[in-house]
Design goal:
Strand content of chain B: 25-35%
Oligomer: heterotrimer
Helix content of chain B: 10-25%
Order of helices and strands of chain B: EEEHEEEHHHEHEHEEHHEEEEEEEEE
Chains: A mainly alpha (530), B alpha+beta (366), C mainly alpha (284)
Radius of gyration of chain A: 38 Å
Largest sheet of chain A: 2 strands, antiparallel
InterPro entries (chain A): MetI-like (IPR000515), MetI-like_sf (IPR035906)
Domain ABC transmembrane type-1 (chain A): 309-517
Distance between the termini of chain B: 32 Å
Structural class of chain B: alpha+beta
CATH topology of the largest domain in chain A: MetI-like fold
Transmembrane segments (chain A): 50-70, 313-334, 341-359, 396-419, 440-469, 496-517
Protein name (chain A): Polyamine ABC transporter, permease protein
Number of domains of chain A: 4
CATH architecture of the largest domain in chain B: 3-Layer(aba) Sandwich
Subcellular location (chain A): Cell membrane
Largest sheet of chain B: 6 strands, mixed
Chain lengths: 530, 366, 284
């Protein structure tokens, strides 16, 4: 008798030839294509579908959030204002050999004359002045003052002499024809450049027709330079300039403000003439580009940012530490109480968490005042003399107290969520082995709760070093953070580049901590409201 | 009970293969057909491909090769929600935001049934599982067994002809499991539905099913009614997997159509039934059920081969005695004997001889 | 912590009770500054501390004049309405985009999942002053600075991390066999989404929305820079009030905001309970 004979016909045995055929060659899908391909295709489709769901938000965040951050990073090194406002001067400075010992030569001043004349028409010289003023005080008024004067420079002598020698030179239409001729343009480079600038200026800034306007003095000045260089293009009125009465542009500038012949001023302009600069970053760490171009410390009296960074750090640490100190007992209590009681007490943690930041800050502003509730109570209790009320606000104390209160829930919540996962049996086991309360806590519970301390501390620290509102309101001058300085530079001093550089440093700091937090806790594990 | 596969197959798998990564086959060439009304269990260790087969039948996985037919029509390209197959999930998958009644109503609403008809069917289905008064409860307010019953009712409420069950009793305790095993088979037979049941619990498979398909390594190792599966395993995997089993290894010495002689590795000769062996010199693994091992040699043929054995341990189990023996160099050989007056109670260290009927000892693949 | 065993030593008893006192003091520190605002806001005088009349519980010492000022003075009413015009729209944007993305992120195969997640969460981590500075520069460039939509966009970006976090958390606990069960019972993908998946993740979506709302409603730094006088919000008004001359009406405003917080907190707690109940025996 063989049992195998009773096997039903459809019953497959351990090995069937059909299975082997496809196992040896590449596996094929139902449509005959290699299975791997169709599986990959299916996977790609799945990825694409997931990506399509995510992409609207991703695009949104990139535009509404990431691009602004990128813009800020860009602004921290961007410095096109000098080369955009004074293009000719920057080019001429590159050729100049006199710096840094002496003021630059005449060609630089001639270029500056054209640049400044145009900038004054656009009124962009004042912006440049304030920009350069961040690097060396006094430059703002220098640009402002000379910007007013530059239109009245005594260069009209060239205009008069040229027009007298060749009256056709007074006619803008004739000018426009000459300047359409490439040969003439080539022979009179300064003139062509000045003419183009004048035409653009007339059209753009003054909205006039250049063919009906008097040609400005600076074009004739440029023409004089070209002729003085020996140009004599055909088709252009030939004027002999050797007998012309001339004037030194440098002297005109010196007359307007003698700072113009100060090599230090020129050194600043030269240092900040490239399109990108490390100047803002150097400024952020209390350094500057010295006259030789090397980085050097700023004078002691101007060193404020390192101190501010340092203060931001230590105050954040102090706040984080107070949060641990106050948060740990609470989290421990909540995690050991029965769930029902813990949930009720949790409300006391969550209510501040959910209450408007402004409300909490207002509360502290009201409470901490010298005539506020806390001082009143202390006086009433006789702990403080009425005349010596405590100064609790507008200093570091105020910031630390208010911020600890504000960030405490951010410490308690992660601590609690870690502690809740520690089984109570561990403590019981420790005690059954003879440990007393303290040993059981210190050797068993505490090590297990350390991840919670880590998570809470990083979170509190990250939030703290970027805080703006609370320090601004209760911090006075000695309790403010780097954020407040950034806000000041954006809205008051308008030194956006410096604000951006300070912001970039702060951002780098925060992102490093964020990365650490992601490593330790994982961003997916961020929990909100317990 | 056994119904061999027949021409009017209701569910058919034909040369079905499945691979998740294009390299490894999870299901290798599956052929299976079951007639209407059969209760078939897919049994196997985890990762053997049984759940994948069930998911392919339900439509949650697609076969990479081959065809699956329901009532003669290929369902390869029918999405799961159009297949009309009832299913009971491993963790019940009751919708937590709906009451029991709403859960049962869901498939009927999808099928656009009128309100009164829905109410009637829901009431009937709940009565069927004796859960009539729980209609307005939420699933989370029910115990595991109650949830299981509701899941069953939900799978049956729209009167599918085929119901799939994926380890439905896995999360329940033993006693409840046995009650529900009985209830499920009873219900299935009463309603005449076809059931494909997946489990890794062999007792469940043996007690509930008309036929059991034992899965391993992506293949059906044996498809047979429970008694046949237990008594006549076709290969050593099935022999090992179903019930308790003693294994000895050796080489075929002599073979004919109905019996063979195997020389064990320590030189002893035994009689066996050739199942998976065909020629002399082949290595084989012989399998004997503990209850078929005989120490009373008078009950055997006179010319039967016997083996010497040393008693290692004697365990009193009430109705049976369980004796662990050292046989042919292995000390995990189990002999199960009935607690009868003439049955000696052996002591550790005692030397005995054991034997068996040739047809109880199956020579399988090595 | 629940009570002391009978064998506790004196030291243990002292420690136990002093520990409870310490905890009570910390709870007091947490909650008192908020609660004390409420009675102070009913001060009949323009003081920021309790007057002797108030301490004597004399009805003369109390009045609702600060509330009258809050609800009639355009200095407060205009910002209040601005806040109410900005926050819901920003919330809607965050919730719509955030929920969609969270569902996408919960799919099994998402390329660069971690990096995308980090970018989407970053508005919560980057200090507000930096976001505000960047947005001020960038929005001026594209002409959004000082406009209603500029503020809405900025606030929506700030609210998104909260939506992502809460919705993802609900989806993590989501049992895939539920959608399979729905399909098996005959429901197509659309019906499955609206009848099974959506109701189950709804608590997460709503609490994410509440977070996004409160983020926008409380936000002051970004609106200070991105907004202009036309978008002055309630927190902005409070901030200027606190920085310049502080008027007691601010206490009334604060009390109103506290009531809103309490309502939100209760709503959230109800939602959390509901969600936990829905997810039943397998919490978390």
């Amino acid at each position: 008798m063989t049992d195998s004979a009773t096997t039903p016909p459809s019953q497959p045995m351990a090995v069937l030839p059909g299975g082997e055929v496809t196992e040896n060659g590449p596996m094929l899908a139902a449509d005959g294509r290699p299975l791997k391909h169709s599986l990959n295709r299916a996977l790609r489709r799945e990825k694409l579908r997931a990506f399509l769901l995510i992409s609207p938000l991703l695009v949104f965040i990139l535009v509404a959030f990431v691009a602004p951050i990128a813009e800020m990073l860009f602004r921290s090194v961007e410095n096109q204002i000098v080369s955009e406002t004074l293009p000719r001067t920057v080019a001429a400075l590159r050729e100049d050999q006199n710096l840094p010992e002496a003021a630059p030569g005449e060609p630089v001043y001639e270029a500056l004359y054209t640049d400044l004349f145009i900038a004054a028409e656009y009124k962009s010289h004042t912006r440049l002045g304030s920009r350069l003023n961040y690097e060396s005080t006094g430059l703002s008024s220098l640009f402002r003052g000379t910007g007013r004067d530059v239109g009245r420079f005594d260069t009209d002598i060239y205009t008069d002499q040229f027009v007298e020698a060749a009256p056709a030179l007074e006619d803008p239409v004739a000018w426009s024809n000459w300047m359409a001729d490439d040969e003439i343009r080539e022979a009179l480079p300064f003139t062509a450049d000045a003419w183009d600038a004048w035409v653009t200026l007339t059209v753009e800034a003054n909205e006039d027709d250049p063919l009906e306007e008097d040609v400005e003095d600076f074009v004739y000045t440029a023409l004089y330079r070209d002729f003085a260089n020996g140009a004599s293009p055909s088709g252009f009125p030939d004027v002999d300039v050797s007998n012309f009465e001339s004037v030194s542009i440098k002297a005109l500038f010196e007359e307007s403000d003698e700072d113009w012949v100060d090599p230090d001023v020129w050194q600043v302009i030269k240092t900040y003439s490239p399109n990108y600069t490390d100047g803002y970053f150097l400024n952020s760490v209390d350094m500057m580009n010295g006259p030789g171009g090397e980085a050097e410390w700023r004078p002691e009296s101007e060193q404020i940012y390192l101190k501010l960074f340092w203060r931001t750090m230590w105050m954040s640490m102090a706040i984080t530490f107070s949060c641990i100190l106050l948060g740990y007992p609470i989290a421990f209590l909540l995690s050991t109480l029965p769930l029902r009681t813990a949930n009720v007490l949790m409300i006391l943690v969550l209510l501040p968490f959910w209450t408007s930041l402004l409300v909490r800050t207002s509360a502290w502003k009201v409470l901490l005042q010298q005539q506020g509730v806390i001082n009143d109570t202390l006086v009433w209790l006789g702990l403080v003399d009425d005349l010596n009320r405590l100064q609790l606000i507008n200093n570091a104390t105020g910031t630390v107290i208010a911020m600890t209160h504000i960030l405490l829930p951010f410490m308690i919540l992660p601590l609690y969520s870690v502690m809740k996962t520690i089984p109570p049996s561990y403590m019981r086991a420790a005690k059954s082995m003879g440990a007393n309360d303290w040993t059981a806590f210190w050797r068993v519970w505490f090590p297990l709760s350390v991840p919670g301390i880590g998570a809470g501390s990083i979170l509190a620290f990250i939030l703290s070093i970027g805080y703006y509102i609370t320090p601004e309101i209760v911090g006075g001058t000695s309790g403010v953070f780097i954020s407040n300085r950034i806000a000041y530079h954006i809205s008051s001093s308008l030194n956006w580049g410096l604000a951006a550089a300070l912001g970039t440093i702060l951002l780098a700091l925060v992102l490093t901590l964020y990365w650490v937090y992601d490593r330790i806790v994982g961003i997916d594990n961020v929990k909100l409201g317990g | 009970m056994a119904q061999g596969s027949s021409s009017e197959a209701f569910v058919e798998f034909e040369r079905v293969q499945k691979s998740y990564d294009g390299e490894k086959l999870v299901v290798k060439d599956l052929n299976l057909s079951l007639p209407k009304g059969e209760f078939l269990t897919m049994l196997g260790p985890s990762g053997s491909g049984k759940t994948t087969c069930l998911m392919m039948l339900a439509g949650f996985e697609t076969a990479t090769h081959g065809e699956i037919r329901l009532d003669g029509k290929s369902i390869n390209n029918i999405p799961p929600h159009k297949r009309g197959i009832g299913m009971v999930f491993q963790n019940y998958a009751l919708f937590p935001h709906m009451t029991v009644g709403e859960n049962l109503s869901f498939p009927l609403e999808v099928r656009k049934l009128g309100k009164s008809e829905r109410e009637k069917k829901i009431a009937r289905a709940l009565d069927m599982v004796q859960m009539g008064e729980f209609k307005n409860r939420r699933p989370t307010q029910l115990s595991g067994g109650q949830q299981q019953r509701i899941a069953l009712a939900r799978a049956l409420v729209f009167e599918p002809e085929l119901v799939l069950m994926d380890e439905p009793l896995g999360a329940l305790d033993k006693q409840l499991r046995e009650t529900l095993q009985f209830e499920i088979t009873d219900l299935a037979h009463r309603l005449g539905i076809t059931v494909v049941y997946v489990t890794h619990d062999q007792t469940e498979a043996l007690t509930m099913s008309d036929r059991v398909a034992v899965f391993d390594d992506g293949r059906i190792q044996q498809l047979a009614p429970p008694d046949e599966l237990y008594e006549k395993p076709q290969n050593s995997f099935v022999a090992q997997f179903i019930g308790e089993n003693n294994t000895l290894e050796g080489v075929v010495e002599r073979i004919d159509a109905t019996s063979c002689l195997v020389r064990l590795d320590d030189g002893e000769l035994i009689d066996a039934l050739p199942v998976n062996v065909s020629k002399v010199g082949e290595r084989t693994r012989v399998s004997i059920r503990p209850e078929r091992v005989e120490s009373n040699l008078e009950r055997l043929h006179a010319d039967a081969h016997t083996l010497p054995a040393t008693v290692q341990e004697f365990i009193y189990m009430g109705d049976t005695f369980r004796t662990r023996l050292k046989v042919a160099g292995r000390d995990d050989f189990i002999m199960k004997t009935r607690n009868a007056p003439d049955q000696p109670r052996l002591k550790p260290g005692e030397q005995i001889r054991i034997g068996w009927l040739a047809e109880d000892c199956r020579a399988l693949d090595a | 912590m629940a009570g002391l065993p009978p064998y506790a030593s004196t030291g243990q008893k002292v420690w136990h009770y002093s520990y409870l006192v310490i905890c009570a003091a910390i709870f007091f520190f947490l909650i008192a500054p908020i609660l004390i605002i409420i009675p102070l806001s009913f001060n009949a005088e323009n003081f920021f501390t309790f007057t002797p009349e108030m301490l004597a519980l004399d009805p003369e010492g109390y009045s609702t004049k600060h509330y009258r000022d809050f609800f009639t003075n355009p200095d407060w009413q205009v910002p209040l309405w601005n806040s109410l015009k900005i926050a819901p729209v920003a919330t809607f944007l965050s919730v719509a985009l955030g929920t969609l993305a969270a569902i996408g992120l919960s799919q099994p195969h998402v390329p660069f999942r971690r990096a995308i997640m980090a970018i989407l969460i970053s508005p919560m981590i980057v200090p507000l002053i930096i976001s505000a500075a960047g947005m001020y520069f960038f929005y001026s460039r594209i002409g959004l600075q000082g406009t209603y939509w500029g503020v809405v966009l900025a606030h929506a970006a700030l609210g998104i991390p909260f939506v992502i976090i809460t919705v993802t958390a609900t989806l993590v606990g989501f049992d895939r066999s539920l959608t399979r069960a729905a399909a098996n019972l005959g429901a197509g993908p659309v019906r499955t989404f609206f009848k099974v998946q959506m109701p189950l993740i709804l608590p997460g979506v709503v609490s994410g929305g509440l977070f996004a709302f409160i983020t926008s409603f409380d936000e002051v730094v970004v609106v200070l820079f991105v907004g202009s006088a036309g978008q002055k919000t309630l927190p902005w008004q409070m901030f200027t009030g606190l920085r310049e001359q502080i008027s007691p009406t601010i206490l009334a405003a604060a009390t109103v905001l506290i009531s809103i917080s309490v309502v939100l907190l209760v709503t959230l707690e109800v939602l959390r309970r509901r969600s936990e109940r829905l997810r039943g025996m397998s919490p978390g």
